[in-house]
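Backbone shapes recur. Consider a single case.
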Amino acid sequence: MANSSTHDDEATWKAFGEAVNMTPAALRKHLDSEASQAVGQKTDGGESTGHREGRRILEIKDKAKSDLSEDDYAHMRKVVSYVHRHLAQGGKARNDPDSPWRMSLMNWGHDPMKD
């Protein structure tokens, strides 16, 4: 069935695969850590946006490519955009494996130390 989206899903799939450079197992382990849960913007003292995003990324990674919805592809584009923006803000934190900057990126599935 042809996709009626104006977006190129194949390009999104490729960009998402490059932006999310952590395996599902590594991302799950990170999301379970105190460091992961300590960073990011929280609403009402609950789960941070990035932590919630990490769980959504795992849901997408657990699906077969043929089962991805338009919502999934839209979310994948959001992840790619966030990772690219956040990488540009690294500065001195790039050399600190425990920096909140790195922990936040890892919540979104990208470990900048793997680049």
Q: What stands out?
A: The CA atoms of residues 20 and 34 lie 21 Å apart. The chain has six helices and no strands. The two ends are 36 Å apart (CA to CA). Helices lie at 9-19, 24-31, 34-38, 49-61, 70-87, 100-107.
